[in-house]
Structures are given as C-alpha cells and as structure tokens.
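BUG: 3D viewer hangs when loading the predicted structure for this chain

Environment: internal workstation, default settings.
Expected: structure renders.
Actual: progress bar stalls at 90%.

Input used:
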Amino acid sequence: MAPVRPLLSPGSRRFVFGLSACAALAIAGARDASAQTPSPLGEWQYSAGVPLQKLYEPTMPTWQVSVGAAMTLQPRYAGSDRYRVMGGPNLDVRYRDLFFLSTGEGLGANVLRGPNWRVSLSVGYDLGRRSADDLGHLNGLENINAAPVMKLSADYVVSKDFPLVLRADVRRSIGGSNGWVGDFSAYMPMPGSNEHFFWFAGPTVSFADSRYMNSWFGVNQGASARSGLPVYSSRAGIKSVGAGVTMVWFVNKHWFVTMDGAIEQLVGRAARSPITQQSTNGVFDMSVNYRF
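Structure tokens produced before the viewer hung:
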C-alpha cells in the first residue's frame, strides 16, 4: 500500500501551529515585537491607506497619533521553515503630510508630494540573521548583523473613482548585508470597505542586487567548510513574488484593530539556495491601537 502523504509540509504545519500561538498571545497581551525586515509582508502594508487619506480628507490634521500593542508570526529568516511569535508596542505619529515616525515605516519625511502622490525618504532597522536563529541549519554560516536601512519610496493613487495605489521603493542596508533591495507593488480597497471597516489587497514583486542575494542566500567556501552546505553563489534579479491583505476595524472613535497577512514565494536563485528550507513563507500580525 502506498504511504500516506501529509496534507501540509513541515513548514506549513509550523505556520498553522504558529497562528494558534499568535491568537493566544493576542489574548494574553503583547510585549516586545517590532516591525522588521526582511518579512513576507509587502512594504505597502506598513503604510496601507496613508496615500489615500488626502483624497478623502483634503484638510489633513496637524497631528495624527496612535499607540498600541502588536504581535507577529513570521519566519525566523528568509527561506526558513521555522516560525516565531513576537509581541511589543505599536506606534504611528504623523505631522501634517510632512513627517512620520512609525513602527512599520520608520522615521522619515515626504520630501515631494501632491494631491495623489508622495515621495518619501526614511530610515528603518533590519534585525539581520544569526546562526542562533536555527543552529541545526545555519551553524557555520556568517551572521548578517543588524543594521539601519535607508529607504526611498514613491506612492501614486490613480484616482478617487479608481483608488488603485501603485508603489515602488528601494532600500539600502548600512551594514548587515550592505546590499540593495526593492519592491514594485499595487493595492486598493476591496469590496465591503466602509467608514468602520476597510481592507486592502495587492501583489508585490521584490528584487535585489548580488551583494544582498549572496549575503542572504549565498554560501562561500569558508562557510561551506564550516557548515557542510555546498558552495553557492547568487546574482542580482527578482528575489520573490507575493501578495498580502491588510484589514482595519474601527471599534469606536478612538480604538481600532489591524490585521495583516501575506504570502511570499522565493524564486530563482533565492529559492534554489541550500540555505532555503521553505521557499514559500507566510506572515500574520495583529495590533490593538488607540488613536488620540
């Protein structure tokens, strides 16, 4: 008799198990999660809806401030088949349509802007990758140190009647991988959105230079000798494709809940790397916030 194959791969089973752990953490309360890169989340999901605000609220408030608690379930590193749950504070502060400080977008400014577009410069943080994230697989590989990340991004809304948001961004790690990575994405409000509940969905394509790709997915001769993994080199190109959903529910004037989910599929050299154990990764996060 043919052996029975499991419906889910080991990595998929860990993701489903992690969802239940994430729900439990939501009930217990969050402590120390923070938005970080890389993540299967699309870059657009860190600021979903912000470019649309000016179309529907021509008079922007001077200050917009919200604080909350968040948790996230995500892979331990790009291509991992192991997941972890993290909890912590959530913060979003915006001054007019000029400056922002947020857990997701980092610290930045809209250096150019119009009624339906903006160009932003910001600085965030990449927590990198350590061999301790998976000693059984990463032992012997060089750590990718945590480092600040500079980001240039641009958002364009097609129109108020057709609120499709087109976005492009490019990021450079100052330390860590010392590489360039960027995204092209698009998203829009989905049917059923209203003043109390709205949700967005859209795809993302990510690309990177050879330095970034080799830092995350390459194995040089020294690392190969230490880890037992075969020597492997990568090159510049498309790193991954993915899609995400972001939802916001306003409980009342001040309290609101957000949820994000995304799937990322590594492609090409990134997917074939001996470091990659699971080429398809998922992420889920949730936050409870208070808006002043």
